[in-house]
Amino acid sequence: MEVTLTAIKADVGSIGGHLLPSKGLVARVKDVVAEQGKDFLCDHFVGHTGDDIAILMTHEGRAHCEAAHRLAWDAFKAGTKVAKAQGLYGAGQDLLKDAFSGNVRGLGPAVAELTFEERESEPFLLFTADKTEPGAYNLPLYLGFADPMYNSGLILSPSVGQGFTFVVMDVEHTHGDRRIELSTPEDAYDLAALLRDNGRFVVESISSRADGEQAAACSTTRLRNIAGKYVGKDDPILIVRTQKNFPATGEVLAPYGIGHLVAGFMRGSHTGPLMPVVAGTGVSFFDGPPIVSCLAFSMREGKLSEPADAFDHPYWDWVRTKVSQKAHDIRAQGFSGPAMLPYSDLEYGGIKERLKKLEARFTVEE
């Protein structure tokens, strides 16, 4: 059976600032998805990470299905009405356009989609992140798919060992989608050279070289490029199929134990470690730290199993403690040096205006 996984995510309102959505808001989104999707969806799941609500849908037909995208748009619009009625902060903030035109891409919400012929056993992971940039998944995806230090299948499995093809998007190129295709292991160094720049080059998809099947799909939305100004961090969503010709589930998860440093945190303008959290966790310290949750599913004929929370395990408690220390250490540095993003990446324009005013006060001594 050919199935499409469509995952769409947006921030449409939050309690007490950027903490988490209200129960009423989430319930309204769930109601709309259940009602509008009953005639064409195989299955669905609605959850949240931080203040972002994620809608996962399974359906027949290809990606970019207008009915699925419209359903998500309508659900987020309905949730926005609840958020406004409750006085929630940032009501509808990720819905950057007024009119739906068949697809939510370019309208604000983050989208990740995969279409494939379902395997006998179809395990996959849904990653949702908050308070960070679309390139936050770059390092974990590189390590999980291209580095035998994390993916032992690259040297133990003949099929996995054939490597993977990465499609990388230049998200700063606004006049059309600018992409490059690189294959590992031969292009591994070129791939690393691009993926070090999380703010510009983002993994869009990964496919197996053993059978050509797509293993991963990641959102590449840059909200500031759509709105023309800072309206919130991009908060990416990622789907990864696992096992057989793909990395094992544990090989995909292992890199998140690093708590690697990404852009985000308060006002989207600081550097902080990405913390793996239990699904449904809100945001707290300094509008952060940047967080990511992971739900594991199995699927048969488009029907989802109940989710297993991949980060709800004693090992990840230790990781969260370690990440908390890293977050505290870099935040203790305040605005100085790498603790705050460089001028070119700052989401808020106020500091640039401040520096422009100071220009006239400089003197030059010959």
List the helices and strands and how they pair.
Layout: E1 2-10, H1 23-37, E2 41-49, E3 52-59, H2 66-85, E4 110-117, E5 124-130, H3 138-146, H4 153-156, E6 164-170, E7 178-183, H5 188-195, E8 201-208, E9 214-218, H6 223-227, E10 237-241, H7 249-253, E11 261-264, E12 270-273, E13 275-276, E14 291-297, E15 299-300, E16 303-304, E17 308-309, H8 314-331, H9 350-359
Parallel strand pairs: 13-14
Antiparallel strand pairs: 1-3, 1-4, 2-3, 5-10, 5-14, 6-7, 6-8, 8-9, 9-10, 11-12, 14-17, 15-16
Helix pairs in contact: 1-2, 3-5
Return the average pLDDT rounded to an integer. 93
Strand fraction: 25-35%
User: What is the succession of H and E elements?
Assistant: EHEEHEEHHEEHEEHEHEEEEEEEHH
**Helix fraction?**
25-40%
User: Poorly predicted ranges (pLDDT <50, ≥5 residues)?
Assistant: none
The number of helical elements comes to 9
CA-CA gap between termini? 76 Å
Radius of gyration equals 20 Å
Written account of the structure:
The protein has 366 residues and is an alpha+beta fold. The chain folds into two domains: 1-117, Alpha-Beta Plaits (2-Layer Sandwich); 125-355, no CATH class. It has nine helices and 17 strands. It has helices at 23-37, 66-85, 138-146, 153-156, 188-195, 223-227, 249-253, 314-331, 350-359, and strands spanning 2-10, 41-49, 52-59, 110-117, 124-130, 164-170, 178-183, 201-208, 214-218, 237-241, 261-264, 270-273, 275-276, 291-297, 299-300, 303-304, 308-309. Strands 5, 6, 7, 8, 9, 10, 13, 14 and 17 form a nine-stranded mixed beta sheet that branches. α1 (23-37) runs antiparallel to α2 and α3 runs antiparallel to α5 (188-195). It starts with a strand and ends in a 7-residue tail after the last helix.
